Amino acid sequence: MTAQIIDGKAFAASVRDKVAGHVARLKSEHGITPGLAVVLVGEDPASQVYVRSKGKMTVEVGMSSFEHKMDAETSENELLELIRNLNNDPAVHGILVQLPLPNHLDEDLVINSIDPAKDVDGFHISNVGLLGTGQKSMVPCTPLGCLMMLRDHHGSLSGMNAVVIGRSNIVGKPMAQLLLGDSCTVTIAHSRTKDLPDVVRGADIVVAAVGRPEMVPGDWIRPGATVIDVGINRIDAPEKGEGKTRLVGDCHFDSCAEVAGAITPVPGGVGPMTIACLLANTVTACSRANGLDEPEGLTA
Ligand code: NAP
Asked: For residues 98 and 47, is the Cβ–Cβ distance under 8 A?
């Protein structure tokens, strides 16, 4: 293996340490405790796990955590009423509505009812527009985490060829905007892209956000390129025993690591950065809401 492993777990821990330092300063110098409210509707098991770990890490960095669990039959009006209350609550600086929502709720309507200044997921249409026009915004957590790791590894990204595979609103599109903001030459690939292997071979930076286990093999990767694997896919792992599974990314790790200059592993790469960036966004939102300088290095 030749690639340097980008250790997302360690990097995320360092981001959380930085956040904790800012939280301590906000408390001691200004008497302000940043607060994050997480809203969960229904009982989706994966969402319950995410919400629990978000709550735990929020408290660990010294912030207030407000969890709102609503049952799966909650009406749109009830949910919008809760969001209105959180928008008006001065102790709440960040609001996250855990997705996916049950089918009877209109996700766009719900997300766009969040005060954009408290939209720590960065999914509100105003934040999408601000990011797209290069203005100060709340930046979606997963692509923000990828950007932080890339900046840390390369310093400047200016002039690099970046290929983002995937064009979702939560990962692919904002990732491309962020890379463009850092002066990369950006290509967004998707399921209709022709000659995807050739497109990827032109990249100094590959960000894979597809949701297809080990889709990108090493022979698509330009020697020395940096590979950021956003994918989280659970596959059968008979080698671990009957009925066992394991997590893999969208890139075939072993073959990509043979040629890449650097690569994020799955698990332990992008995943841990997502919650760290949620905490970073909350401290950024709190600083902005109070007219204070926002912490450096915690946002785009
Ligand atoms: P998504 O909304 O399903 O989007 C997947 C994208 O991949 C689409 O744009 C799709 O193209 C494209 N695609 C599908 N098949 C393709 C193919 N054969 N060749 C090229 N492109 C193809 O997924 P997402 O929400 O962006 O998530 C992507 C992956 O990242 C998933 O594994 C998810 O679990 C993971 N994820 C991880 C984190 C984290 O914290 N690490 C956070 C979010 C997501 P079309 O648009 O043409 O259909």
From this structure: yes
Cβ(76)–Cβ(106) under 8 Å?
A: yes
Alpha-carbon distance of 23 to 62, in angstroms, equals 6
Cα(32)–Cα(91) distance, rounded to whole angstroms? Answer: 9
| Catalytic entry in 18, 119, 121, 177 | 121
Cα–Cα nearest to 174, from 215, 220, 230: 230
User: 0.70 cut: is pTM over it?
Assistant: yes
Q: Number of H helices and number of E strands within the chain?
A: 10, 11
Q: Whose CA is nearest to atom 13 of ligand 1?
A: 191
First to last CA, the chain: 32
Please give the number of the atom of ligand 1 that sits closest to the Cα of 215: 18
Tell me which residues of the chain have a pLDDT lower than 70.
1
Is the Cα dihedral 198, 201, 207, 213 positive or negative? positive
Q: Is 4 a catalytic residue?
A: no
Cα dihedral 95/53/76/78 (nearest 10): -80
Q: Is the distance from the beta carbon of residue 216 to the nearest atom of ligand 1 less than 6 Å?
A: no
Integer Cα distance of 123 and 227 in angstroms: 25
Residue 1 has a pLDDT of 64
Assess whether 244 carries a catalytic annotation.
no
Backbone angles phi, psi at 156, to 5 degrees: -80, 140
